[in-house]
Amino acid sequence: MDSRPMKPPYRVLLVDDHKFVCEMLAHKLAVDRSIEIVGIANHGATAIDIVRSRDVDIALLDMALEQEDGLGIARQLLAAQPELRIIGLSTYDHSHYPTALLELGGMGFLTKRASARDIGDAVRRVAAGDMAVSAEIAVFLATQSCLNPIERLRQLTVKEVEVLGRVASGLPVKDIARVLSLTEKTVQGHRNRLRKKLGARTDVELCLLALQVGLIDLHHSLPPGN
Question: Quick check: 141 and 149 in contact, CB under 8 A?
Fold first, then answer.
């Protein structure tokens, strides 16, 4: 997925089966000049139609739509627009949704207790190419990943740890190469070895491991120049 920074205003689609909730959130977010609400959908089919017919940067997706599977809708949205950045919303902190959505390619997950300000901040973070996860969900994700993460990181070289921190913070390979003064091929090689050494299948799993050991903070990820 392309995680390059987007230019404002960020075109946002709201997907929630509660019409009143959608309209209230749209009203609160509309005061933010960096955000443009380009659509409101109360059903998955409507959301997919909007993504196919309009330019949408970010979708705020309720994972528990009435009689619809939020993950299934996320798959269809990404199939219709692969560059779409999805932020999941859920009432439940402890569920399979956060990990599953991030594995699909989502870039954020918030509890529905998040304020409009928090949601606006998350939209800007995701637009910048970072992940955005509520604190409660970040703790849950960290405790769900593998045991003894410190022991697993001891097998890494200093350079591999540096690359892991940047990968987990959402930086694309070319930016990691620039920051660490490496070639893109070398960075890709480090990333492949990280996955093999740590038993991770995806960058999301690398991110969860880095979160466990305090290598990154999803709310204060590494800036590109560090």
Answer: no
Name which of 118, 115, 110 is nearest 136 in CA terms. Answer: 110
Domains of the chain by residue range: 10-143, 146-212
Residue 154 carries which DSSP code?
Answer: T
pLDDT score recorded for residue 69:
84
Q: Are strands 58-62 and 108-111 parallel, antiparallel or unpaired?
A: unpaired
Report pTM.
0.69
Where residue 214 falls (left for φ over 0; alpha for ψ -120 to 50; beta otherwise) is left
Class of 10-143 per CATH? alpha beta
Task: Indicate whether 139 pLDDT > 80.
Answer: no
Q: Which helix (H) or strand (E) holds 225?
A: none
DSSP letters for 88-110: EEES-SSSSHHHHHHHHT--EEE
Under CATH, which number does the domain 146-212 receive? 1.10.10.10
How many CB atoms are closer than 10 A to CB 218? 24
Nearest-CA neighbor of 43 among 74, 16, 20, 64? Answer: 16
Edge to edge, the sheet with strand 108-111 lists: 35-41, 10-15, 58-62, 85-90, 108-111, 132-133
Instruction: Say yes or no to pLDDT of 32 above 70.
Output: yes
> For position 142, what pLDDT does the model report?
67
